[in-house]
Amino acid sequence: MLSTSTITVDYERLLWALAIVAFLVFTAIYAVAAFSRDPIMGYAILGLFLMVSVFIAYPLLEAVRLTFLKEGKLSLETWAAVLSPRYLVALWGSVQLGVLTATASTILGFAFAFLVERTSVGGKKFITNLATLPVISPPFSLTLSIILLFGNNGLITRGLLGLDNFSIYGLNGLVIVQTISMFPIAFMTLASVLKAIDSTVEDAALDLQASRWHTFKTVTFPLAMPGVLSAWLLVFTNSLADFANPLLLSGSYRVLSTEAYMEVTGQNNLGGGAALSLMLLLPTLTAFLAQRYWVSRKSFVTVTGKPSTRLTELASPRVRLALTVFVGMCIAFIIALYATIVAGCFVRNWGIDYTFTLDNIGEALSRGARAISDTVTLAALATPIAGVLAMIAALVVVRKTFAGKRLLEALMMTPFAIPGTLLGISYILAFNKPPLILVGTAAIIVINYIVRELPVGLENGSASLRQIDPAIEEAAQDLGADTPTVFRTIVLPLIRPAFISSMSYTFVRSMTAVSAIIFLISANWYHLTVQIYNFSELLRFGWASVLATALIIIVFVAFGVMRLLVRDDGQTEKTFSR
């Protein structure tokens, strides 16, 4: 009686919505209990469908819906603004940056992978560890190093060379930073592809008097082409969605990821930010479909029986030396970048006063103590949940057949294809109103971690399960073990490497996340990467260096634990002959 009619109507609609949802949930539970031969697995499938519906499909639909609304009415005004020349320039900037970064990263990754997997050079573990270092470090770390070395007051540009008109900001600087940050993705993809190629095909070409270069050009590289295209596509997708590096280094160069951020934070235009993020899917899907079409037209099968454990080294001594020198220079540059971060911790005012000081450490750690604590806590909460959930999802997808299986798998893989900015905006729209208000809580950040990294864990678990004979699980069930017992005592121990890798990856990515998290943090929960960005924006490079170093140390510890728990069994190692 004391409320307005509008509030009463809204409350009544909420009650009806909750009643309908409750009815559907209880109906589904009853149906599983009454008609399923394996109720536990039925509940697992039902739970996965409920999770992806609430935390993936619903937020994305809310984001898409908002782009077609203006003041609560159907309108195309948002898309008319987004398709204006101003934002089309930003779209072209994102595509241009993505193409250049993907091409450079793929070339660099192929050089590293070929040296490690197809030559007899020494120090392969050292090269591999340094090559993967940018993947497990904070997204701002390399950008921070580039600014400290080549910025307006950089140690090299101003201190050593005395350059006044040189600027690292813009496309050139972004390509350099993104290439160093993302070439490990190409390296890891291409290393596995080059390692799996059966060298008997190359031996046949060499026996027919083909030169090493001709054999590489006509046999090795064409067989590696699917991996090359996959690596290019992965880097291209990551470059388009990259939010951290352009935020600090784009200068006047415009890309859609930062434009979407400014629409949301600067103009409070969630619809415009969502529309700009959705536009990033266009070049991604185009590249994906082109890659699938090209690969589907050719056959790349070389392993038809037991693969050879011997590799014929195609690289001549001169080529091997040139590759070693090139890779060594790249590694030296990577080491210099990370050494710059550490050095920045002990400089009073970088670019002006290089006096040694320890003040930065105490000041940065005191100001960032809460961010460190919050970040580690949230990542630690998300890690075990994401690991177990990914393995359950893999078991359901690989071992079970049910209606809607393809839809469930597609929805679980969707977060891998969409930009982090879109996911963050979607969560704000979906969970800032009844019936599920999560904005401002730790739950929305933890859920974002889990959903964002679920596709990687799902793929790792699925790949491991496909290598295991299902007869082992069937034997346990024949002896009376129920589904939870089989999962706990049979499946998890057998896929232990994938399980631990999934958890470690989730922890590392949660610690270094920024694109979606920057929209979801609140006064109650903060994040370390956002704190590093704020310090960098305020030109407090010493404080930013301290927090970046602390974050790298934390991630290294987690990654080191993963390496100790999951060791290479050496079964795929090969010997070389020249």
Biggest sheet strand line-up: 1-2
The level of helicity is: over 70%
Q: Give the total of domains.
A: 2
The CATH topology of the largest domain: MetI-like fold
The counted number of beta strands is 8
Compute the average pLDDT: 83
Contiguous helical run count: 25
Give the second-level CATH assignment, the architecture of the largest domain: Orthogonal Bundle
Main sheet record:
2 strands, antiparallel
> Quick one: CATH superfamily of the largest domain?
MetI-like
Low-confidence stretches: 299-306
- Determine Rg (CA atoms, Å): 26 Å
Structural write-up:
With 578 residues, the protein is mainly alpha-helical. It folds into 2 domains: 36-75 and 353-568, MetI-like (MetI-like fold); 87-256 and 313-344, MetI-like (MetI-like fold, Orthogonal Bundle), CATH 1.10.3720. The chain is 74% helix and 4% strand. It has 25 helices and 8 strands. The chain has helices at residues 5-35, 39-67, 77-82, 85-118, 124-132, 139-150, 155-160, 171-196, 200-207, 212-241, 244-249, 256-265, 270-279, 281-296, 317-344, 359-399, 405-417, 420-430, 442-466, 471-478, 483-494, 496-512, 517-520, 528-537, 541-565, and strands at 69-70, 73-74, 310-312, 347-349, 353-356, 432-433, 436-437, 575-577. A two-stranded antiparallel ribbon has the order 1-2. Strand 4 (347-349) and strand 5 form a beta hairpin. The chain is globular, with a radius of gyration of 26 Å. It starts with a helix and ends with a strand.
